[in-house]
Amino acid sequence: IWFFNLFFVFIPGCFPSCLITGPVASCASKKLRSVPPLPRNITHLYLEMNYISEINSTSLTGLEELQELDLGRQRVPLVIRNEAFSGQRRLKRLILGFNVGLQLEPLAFEGLSGLCDLHLDYCSLNDSILSGPYLEPLSALETLDLFGNQIMKLQPSLFFANMTELKVLNLKLNKIGKICESDLIGFRGKRFTVLNMNSVRLKKMSNYSFDWQKCGNPFRGMSFETLDLSYTGLSVGQIQHFFTAIKGTNITHLKLSGHIGKGFSFNNLPDPDHRTFEGLKSSSVFSLDLSQNRIFALQQGVFSPLRDAVTIDVSQNRLNQIHRGAFNGLHGHLKMLNLSHNLLGEVYSHTFVSLANLRVLDLSHNHIGVLGFGSFSGLSHLEALNLAGNSLRDLGFPATLPSLNYITLNDNKLTSVRTFAWFAVNIVHLDIRGNRLTNLEDVYSLVTQMKPLQRLLYGGNSIRWCTPGGQVGLNKLELLDLHSSSLQTVWALGTCLDLFDNLGNVTKMNLSSNGLRSLPQGVFKGLTSLVELDLSSNTLTHLQSDVFPQSVKVLHLASNFIASPDPASFGSLRFLDLGMNRFHCDSNLRSFLTWLNRTEVTLSSPAQELRCEFPLRFQNVPLLDYQASWLRKE
């Protein structure tokens, strides 16, 4: 039965087998014990989580158009017989993953000469999957996923030389004890896009008596775009030996997470030093990822062998010290440095002095409480600086950063912005949300003094007063975030009512969660370019008809107390959010309800979801139901 190109196929019995949508058959979790009868045009067949125990040469008869087949996670042991896929010349992707105890006969994959992706993850497979004949027919294979198997010896057969398209190999969480040159001859000549050896515990290579010279270079004749050697169990000294062994191997991105480093307050394990990466000197490493280790100190010249490194990530370590000269050798080529989520407490003038070409520096979520005089010296090309989540009370007197245009300082303890304009004269984006600033005068001074500033995120500060020294001067501000800034308190005192008068370039403004009970007359008159305004989570009870500039197209008023909104306030809008507004359902609401039924404005919450809050007898009644009731009465 065809119905909008969708029909069901039933197996004789009491339950439907598959949902067919065009050439796609979804048969997952249907308690199937064999491949069901299906239309011949099926190209994508999903049979995961069934009870299929065997695939043989007749199982897929009539399905010669298949391009993708998923047989993963069968709930019974699965056997793939010889030539089970002999008719599947078009099959590109085969998923057999999470079939614990999977049995493959030697010619199981015969006929799959066009297969590109093979997933055999978590199938209890042993060394023979690579050393035996199973994969030989797969001459077009590009991706091989062997995650979580029982491979103990990595000895690929020589026929892998014929798999010229093999680019991605996942060996994560296998039990390979060592990898040596004589073992990996079958991979020689490979240009891997990804080789994932994460959590492959190289126990034999971790032995102090291991003969590195005899082992040779396991990666001889290979190159890697991404090589993941995380959690291999190798110590810093053994890693140094390993890199020496693979000297000259091209590695674009190297990931090395795990247990490297001595950690905080321990001395029994060393941190990496200038010798650790010496073997990578000629490997053209573009990106080094040392995140999620236990490095406590960056030693002098630790990265100096990395002559081509553009990105280094040492985030999520125990980093507390950066020795003088730690970044020697990176001058002129390192552009991105991530030191976030560590234990750094201060920044000195010499800390980054050798990183003249650095563009992005992430120091977020440390414990930085002070910036030493002249800190960040040498970073003349730095464009983005992230200091969020630290303990800074003020900026002090860091070096001027003429190229800096993006800085985040949210979630610190800042009480003053006095030196901001001097420190970063060309800032375009400034985020100082969630600090301890108390005077709204900061907005006047920042916008006036920092001429290029386009985005100011100031919300979440505990504003107590406003003592402006004058009007906002000429500026380029386009976005202003003043959420949770106690504007009701400030404006109730009659201060800072001219805050927005000269912000004619602002297109987006956030004034949510300010406890606003009303909007002062003319407070938005200077916002001639404003397009989006967020006034959600306030306590507004009414809106003047002319309070918003005609330029406003998007208005957020969710979670307010606007009892009877005046449709005249919404004349210029294209989008309106009134979700969770507390409407008062009486005769004063009629004009709004009439507008609601006729408007072409897009509502974030459908009209059917808007409900009465007051009076009590109408509480939680949908507005449209309330309208229908008084229309019936009339």
Task: Kindly describe this structure.
The chain is mainly beta and 634 residues long. The chain has a domain at 1-176: Alpha-Beta Horseshoe (Leucine-rich repeat, LRR (right-handed beta-alpha superhelix)). 9% of the residues lie in helices and 17% in strands. The chain is built from 8 helices and 35 strands. The strands form 5 sheets. The chain has a 26-stranded mixed beta sheet, with no helix packed on it. The longest helix is centred in the C-terminal third of the chain and has 11 residues, at 623-633. The two termini are 50 Å apart. Keywords: Leucine-rich repeat, Repeat, Signal. This is Toll-like receptor 5. Residues 1-16 form the signal peptide. One of its GO terms (cellular component) is extracellular space.
Question: Over the alpha carbons, how many angstroms does the gyration radius reach?
Answer: 33 Å
| Coarse shape | flat
- What is the CATH superfamily classification of one domain? Ribonuclease Inhibitor
Distance between the termini: 50 Å
Would you count the extended β strands for me? 35
Kindly report the CATH topology of one domain.
Answer: Leucine-rich repeat, LRR (right-handed beta-alpha superhelix)
* Mean pLDDT figure: 95
Helix/strand class:
mainly beta
How many strands, which pairing sense, and closed or not: the largest β-sheet?
A: 26 strands, mixed
The fraction of residues in strands falls at 15-25%
Low-confidence stretches: 1-15
| Count of runs of 4 or more consecutive helical residues | 8
Helix-residue proportion: under 10%
CATH class of one domain: Alpha Beta
InterPro entries: Leu-rich_rpt, Leu-rich_rpt_typical-subtyp, LRR_dom_sf, SLRP
Keywords: Leucine-rich repeat, Repeat, Signal
Protein name: Toll-like receptor 5
Pfam families: LRR_8 (PF13855)
